[in-house]
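Team,

Forwarding the record for the chain on the shared tracking sheet. I've put the sequence and predicted structure together so nobody has to dig through attachments.
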Amino acid sequence: MFQYARTDAVAGLVVFLVALPLCLGIAVACGVPPISGLVAGIVGGIVVPAFSRAPQSVTGPAAGLTSIVLMEVARLGGVAPFLTAVVLAGLMQLVFGALKAGRFAALVPSAVIKGMLAAIGITIVWKQLTVAAGVNGTVVDALTAPHPGAVLIAGMSLALLYGWKHTPLARFTLLSPALVAVVLASLAARLLASTALALGEGHFVAVPLGGLSALASALPQPDWTAIGRPELWLAAVTIAVVASIETLLSLQAVDRLDPLKRHSPPDRELLAQGAANTVAGLLGGLPVTAVIVRSGANVAAGGLERFSALVHGLLLLLAVLFAGPLLNAIPLACLAAILIQVGLNLCKPALFSAQFRLGYTQLLPFAMTIAAVLALDLLKGVIVGILAGIAFVLYENSQRAVVADRDAAGVLRMRFRRDGTFVSKPSIVTALDSISDGDEVVIDGTDEYIDHDVKEVLATFLEEARRRRITVQIVGIDLADAHGSGGH
């Protein structure tokens, strides 16, 4: 962990500057106290490096879990029972890691993952419109009766975030555009304090002041009396599965960026994430995952080992303990602007056009996942997407399992171009039915898996072929145990 301590310390400072506004903003987006987001960042930074062997990955509260937190807090009736679900989810992740389940994340189709992230992005943007407008009501209220000061600060913050790459400040790697937006928004709020655009007390972050004792008393605690509720266990499963998938995807992405080309063990990472989520839930924090935004900032800043993640976690802890007044000067409208940018990056138009170009077999599972997540919830939406993906795979495998061509001698050669399974039986039967009486046929299944159902179809065809004077040669398929079924 300490092999590159000097460069990792600098990278940890950069990651801290990126993570601080995101921890606060994600907590606000989830409808929980801002301190819960900071606690999650602290736990992710301190606990995960102790167990993980992912050198450049950084853990914290993730935008990808925002819609889950929002929905489950409302469904379970508060933050306290939700924290119980977070603890259980962490324990489940420990079991996943012990069972070496990390490899199974690859079973989730790419279109479903992209649809899940796009739906999360849409949810984030929709929910943050009211915060950016400085109202407590609905989006209609945000459009009809916005707070002009909040709208001004949100607009300025978005302009800075999207225009950052065009400014000279973009050359300084220590400067995070989100943090600069927070600083400028805090100054702007102070300047507006004596005008008609002044923000009210409810428009700012509220972090408890007074050191460790005040922090401990302000943190929400798990409600263990709710542990027998079925919906709490469903919430725990949802958090465990989605957080594990997001972590493993981030891990793969960060490994590709590693200049030393190291491989992070996924099962060890699940153990680390499980430990972190268990601790986060016990301390009143949001669920955590490995986060590509923080990890990417770590790589860009030269972080090479886990010490950078540890430094970022310790700096977050110091900020909570000693910089409370500064944190409480941050306008919520600025944090909403940061999250709107995050949400738009998750559901940007280029993602939709790319899926459209890939064809309906990718577009439809992608679109169905988005619709199901928005209409139902995240876990059910992902399940719907996976089922849709499986259906399209089965459909594709059922089409043109065999190709048939006549050679110069008039022999009809039928070749399997993919495995012959029960789903491909209709196309195989259609091809066999097209053979005319008296034909000479070669059926070649070399190097392909042919299941028993298809072998029975071929055995039945052989029985009919004798009656129809069809000469059949079977190549690469063992029909010793297959018997004709009297029709196919």
